[in-house]
Every structure is written in C-alpha cells, then in structure tokens.
Amino acid sequence: MPIFTAPDGTRLTFHVRGKGEPLVVLPGGPMRASVYLGNLGGLDAHRQLMLLDLRGTGESEVPAHTATYRCDRLVDDVEALRLHLGLGRMDVLAHSAGGSLAMLYAARYPERLKRLALVTATPWALGWPATAGDRLAAARLRASEPWFADAFPAFEAWLDGTGDFDPVFLPFFHGRWDDTARAHADREEAETNDEAADVYGADGAYDPEATRSALARVQAPVLVLAGGFDGGPSPALAGRTADAFPKAECVVQPGAGHYPWLDDPEWFTRRVAAFFS
Questions:
Q1: Do the beta carbons of residue 71 and residue 207 sit within 8 Å?
Q2: Of 105, 148, 154, 109, whose CA–CA distance to 125 is shortest?
Q3: Which pTM value belongs to this model?
Q4: Strand bridging mode 22-26 / 90-95
Q5: Residue 1 has what pLDDT?
Q6: What's the burial of 134, exposed, middle or buried (CB within 10 Å: 0-12/13-18/19+)?
Q7: 200 and 124 in contact (C-beta within 8 Å)?
Q8: For residue range 130-175, what is the model confidence (pLDDT) as tens digits?
Q9: Cβ atoms of residues 5 and 233 within 8 Å
Q10: Residue ranges of domains in the chain
Q11: At what angle do helices 208-215 and 98-108 cross, to 10 degrees?
Q12: Per CATH, which fold does 3-131+193-275 belong to?
C-alpha cells in the first residue's frame, strides 16, 4: 500500500490497480474511501489506476486539524500525490463530489493537468448545485420500476425537507437496482467519514466566480460524463459544466445512474478509455 506525506505531515495512501500509464482517481462521497470505486468497471485493463484515499478515509491518516477536510484544502494533497508519483503532468478522473476537488485543482494548477474526466460530478465548485427539480425529474423516468411507488414519495419528502433520508429511495441513484447495486449501497455508510463530509463543502471551500474564471483558461481536454438517469447532476447540468472549460465534451451514458461503471461497465470503460488514450 503506497504511502506519501501531505504538506502538513498527514500520511496519505493510494491504491494501485492495473498496469500502464498512471491515472489519478479522486473519490466522491464526499469523503468516501476509494474502495467503492473498485476497478471502475474494468478501466484498470487500460490504465494504471491510482485511487487516492482522501485524508481521514480508507487507509489514510486522520489529520490533526479537521478544518483540512475542506475541499479547497485538499488540493494540496492532490498536488502532493503528483509530486510523489514524479509526474510532470497527470491525467485525472474524479467522481461525484471529487469533481469539485478536481475543478479546484485544475483552477490552481492548470499546467499540471494533462486530461480530466469528470464522472457524474455535481459542480458545487462552480456554484451550480443539483436542484430538487433535477432529481425529481430524473426519478420520474423510473416510474415503470417495481420499487417506484414506495420510493418516490419518500424521495420527494426528503428533497422538500419534510422527510428524512430513507434507504427505500436508494434505487434512484443507480441505473440498475440489482445485487451489485445493493451491495454497493450497503457499504456506503461504513466507507464514509461523516465528520469530514460535513466539512468538505463548509464556508470558504468554494469561490465559484474565481473558479469559473480560472477554468476558462484551462487548456487540458475535459470529458464530462453524465448518467441518463442521474439527477445530480442531470445531463443538462453536466453540459453546463462542460461549457465552463474551453476544450470539453459532455457525453451521457444511457440508462446509467450516479455510478455508471456499475450500470454498464463495458460502455463506461470503452468511452473513458478512449478519452484517455
């Protein structure tokens, strides 16, 4: 298990899967251990995945100061990993909440970024959160599913603030609610540092106007991948994210939810591997 040291002395780990040119992978959650990403549907057959456990998650050390869980503070950890790997420029793939970390990294270190893939990444760093309307519109696409009648009212109540989070609506985050998806969802709580997640997007983490301005000058190619059934981000919001970069394309994986490598591994791997080839 490779270990490196962050600028503040926190010992961080990353997990290596596959062989080939390195691809640094930033997990979402926020603050979920990278183990949930697996081999990203077989992407490790094309690239050597460097799956970072963010501080306080997975095998990485808990920092001395919890304020360092904030997204903008984590940029230093990503840069420390690049230096540890000895890469002049690096390819990065970021999932979900990790997309905001990747955007902040791109804004601060554009010359260090070779290519960037943002996978179902809600652009909090750009000041554009997913809305309840986005999520409900995506949920209604699943009306023919056998679990929909029980799940939709609970999902609607959670989104409007009249209900609590309920596992009954977890199927809305997956394109296929099968045994693989259930097992993936069952592990989320144990794999997530809730204290760190609360700090990740705390006041001061994002400066959307400055970040949008900086990203408009990023020359690295960017792939923004959305799931056709995902509401956070919706395909429309993913397209808006792509528009923030000069050299970006947005693609929508049909029938996919928030974890597209689980829903159709072959489609996901083929498309992402082609981008990084």
A1: no
A2: 105
A3: 0.97
A4: parallel
A5: 74
A6: buried
A7: no
A8: 999 999 999 999 999 999 999 999 999 999 999 999 999 999 999 9
A9: no
A10: 3-131+193-275
A11: 60
A12: Rossmann fold (3.40.50)
